[in-house]
Structure formats: structure tokens, C-alpha cells
Predict the structure.
Amino acid sequence: MNLDRVFLRLTVRSWLALLVFLSAAAVVYGYIQRLSGGGSVLAHLGLVLAVVGILVGAGPPREST
């Protein structure tokens, strides 16, 4: 995957970093809600998105032809 490709004025690498950051924010917010008696769906969704973003970003680079 070419991480330097531009999409909507940001590179793919920047989109992945933004995804991981927002996922971390969702995890923190979800656990705060869980401590106050709410559900933890947002925390679990944030964890899943963070793992997906990290796996995509950490994958082996593809050779461009």
C-alpha cells in the first residue's frame, strides 16, 4: 500500500494517524462512560478501529510498479 498517496488533501499515512488518534479518544470516552454506568460499546469500537489502523499502517510496503 502506498502510504504517501494523497486523498482529500491528506496522505494515507496521515489518515491512519488520525484514525488511531480518534480511536484512542473513543476508547477513553467509552471507559469514562462505563465508569459512570453507561455502556462500553464506544470503547470496544475504538479498540477495534485502533487495531485495524495499526495493522494497515504496519503492513509491509508494496513495491510500486
Observations:
- The CA atoms of residues 27 and 44 lie 7 Å apart.
- Helices lie at 12-35, 41-58.
- The chain has two helices and two strands.
